[in-house]
Amino acid sequence: MRFVKARDYDDMSRKAANVISAQVIYKPECVLGLATGSTPVGAYKCLVEWYRKGDLDFSGVTSVNLDEYRGLQHDNPQSYYYFMNDHLFSHVNIDPANTHVPDGTIADADEACRQYDETVKSTGGVDLQLLGMGHNGHIGFNEPDDVFAKGTHCVNLAQSTIDANSRFFASRDEVPTQAYTMGIQTIMSAKKILVVVSGTDKADIVEKAFFGPITPQVPASILQLHPEVTVVGDEAAFAKIADRI
Ligand code: GLP
Question: How far is the CA of 140 from the centre of ligand 1 (A)?
């Protein structure tokens, strides 16, 4: 596990975007695993800026996103489908047909998850998986559990996740209680993983996830077993591990 120290959120975003850029430059036909949440937003901004400058070409890139709220329509601004178009896809030359987000509009959960596993499989595998991390250590929407889930599955969101994500919705009651998420096995199958963390409120979970025991109760802790993980974090998020990295 490699830790890259950044000064603040902007620095973290640029460093993370540089890692993603390098992937696209080294392998223009790569598969990027993409994430939502507020942490990667700055990195997406950099990628859009560098694309506009002519430094990046997404025409060969395929993307698979980690997760989606169950039941939200694509035109709902809180859906991850909308988020990805809004922050990245509609601003760069990625072929929309090559962008994939689990389909939250499919009511049949088994069918939605089966379809998404097929989609991920058909890409041939993720080259670089971008991950944010929830306060309870969730990655994608893999919440603390007794086991590590394998493929795409439907989850009941933890109350703390609903509370944290309610800041994006008009009221807490509007936050969906379920989501479809890629499983831990699929995430761990990515060739490389890039984790982004920022802010004091992530300092505790950063320590637990990367220096604590590997347990499904802290889903991100499994990343300790992956051979190619880079964690880019700002000083605030690394506050509790600064003397160990
Ligand atoms: C959501 C997403 C996760 C994300 C997490 C952290 O729950 N499903 O993929 O990592 O939020 O979000 P933030 O970056 O806003 O702290």
Answer: 7
